[in-house]
Amino acid sequence: MPFRRATVALVISVVVFAGACSSNAKRSPSSTSSSTSSSSSASTSSTSAVSATTVTTLLAAPPAVKVEALTGSGKAPHAYEYRVELPQVAGQSAMNDVMRAWAKKRIVEFVAVVEEDNSGTGESESQRSNLTGRSATTLVDRRVVSFRLVLSQYISGAAHPGAQVKSFTFDLTTGKELALPDLFKPGAPYLNYLSRRALEQLKASEFKDDLIEEGASARDPNFASYNLTDKGMEVTFQEYQVGPYAIGTPTVKYTYAELRPLMGSSGPLAGR
Fold first, then answer.
1. What is the pLDDT of residues 101-122, one digit of tens each?
2. Domains, the chain, with CATH or none
3. What does DSSP assign to residue 178?
């Protein structure tokens, strides 16, 4: 009989243990589901946090810049020649295409004007229509490149040549060409400030003209030919924009320090 009691006790113990295991097994899916859900939620939260963070990746070093020349000529009765230099940025084919396309369009326009001129020209260099273009690199760093192109065009028989200024500024982190509003934070009264300072500088020069007020008024097109430098921003006005032909293409300058209150916290001018 003692043996039988021991056997019964053993059986009861096994049943109790098995019941406990069964109970744990029944609770396990719920517990696992809760754990999985919590883990998934944490993972999603972490992913969302990463997605919400925008990181601006600068180049390891400023890119190299070389000069490319577009050249050509035509013979009498409409003799002409052109040589237009433009910058080309290493590893930035899209930017280079933008600048090259602009230069080629100006060349096509120049040739069309020459060929429509019924007066014709001789073969001598003094009589020949010409188009020349020079480029200047005003800033190259890990974030931004900025270039100024100046075209000088002379049509045979004209009293004097004419000039056109074109500026290109690109954000190297996005490949985007930067328009003037891209430099400043949304809603900033940058045009009012640029206009006021430009008028101060122009009126302080020896040339004074009624065109100054209109040509340097607070409108985006008036300040479209801007360039960035290591010290600030420069705006070049076109011929006749703020005065007579004699003053050429005057430039006004702004320091980063004075522009800082108008800059965006994460834009291309941030930290300058």
1. 999 999 999 999 999 876 655 5
2. 62-178 (3.30.565.40), 179-271 (3.90.640.20)
3. P
